[in-house]
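Thread: quick sanity check before group meeting

JM: Hey all, I'm pulling together slides for Thursday and realized we never actually wrote out the predicted structure for the chain we discussed last week. Dropping the sequence here so it's in one place. If anyone has concerns about the input, flag it before I start.
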Amino acid sequence: MRRQALFFFSVFFWAGACFAAPTEIVPFTGVLDLKAGAMTLSFFPEGRQAVTLKAERTQQDPLARSFRVSADLVHVPTGFFDLSTNIRGEISFLGQSLNALDVAVRLEGRDTLVDYSPVSDVVLDVLLKDGKATIRSVSLGPFAARGTVGLEAPWSLALRLDLLTLDLEVLGALFERYAGIRSWPVTGTADGLMELKGEWRHPEVQGKISAYNGMIKGVGYESILLDFEGRYPSIRLREGMFQQAEGLVFRLAGILDLSDMARLGEQIRLLKKDPLVGEVGDRREWVIRRLRSGGTGTTDMKYLWMKDDRGDVSAVLGIQKSIGF
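JM (edit): ok, ran it. Output follows.
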């Protein structure tokens, strides 16, 4: 019974924190039946749709270790985006006593809208145990994560984040709204991964991101490949490649300050951009790559220069073309 009461009051306070601003008073009604192990709460925030939460003890569980939960969220502001979804799942207490509150949470969200746009189903599978949250699976639209997060100081992280076909215009709209960026500089589609380790305020970061078929600061590109590392908020490009839509290839290098996202466009402009040039004997080559029609291979075009005795480029002598598969 004590476990039931603790669970229901935890749900109540969590719901209040989610659906009310710090100075907002939200009326609610509800029914709590400790004997049956069931609770229904309805919140009525001003100017927004009502939110109803339901929790009930699973059948044949007299010790109240597992509860089914559900909630229908309609245009709920989360602080980052507007969220609509139908949540169903289960919360289980794994410890044998109230002094060992190990909790497993498995939730799924169906028919989900983020800022009024449909996304794939939301999945949350987390284990709270030994002072940390083990994220076995979390996914929301193009974002997925797994790893651990400390639940007490110094709040250590060991997370892997995956991007799966992310529309950069959608990401830009979020940054413009919540990070103060006046004009998001990048469009296209991105994939990649990022790992974070260490204290949550300044974790070590490393990862790789690929973007395709978009614009950056008004310049069209066919692909951007970035390999980066650093300690947040300072991120260094270990290796970067920028291929323009017309085929010119440049190496990118530099440092980005993620704490100053409002100047992201200016920071990108200041990155070092060098043409991809290789040296072969007494000549230099500037490589231009073009994707062959149908995506079956690549065509490389190389502008060739001769170097004089001082090692300087003297003149363009010709163009070499090769096809790779």
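AS: nice. The chain has three domains: 1-99, 156-274, 276-325. Residues 156-274 form one domain.
JM: adding both to the slides.
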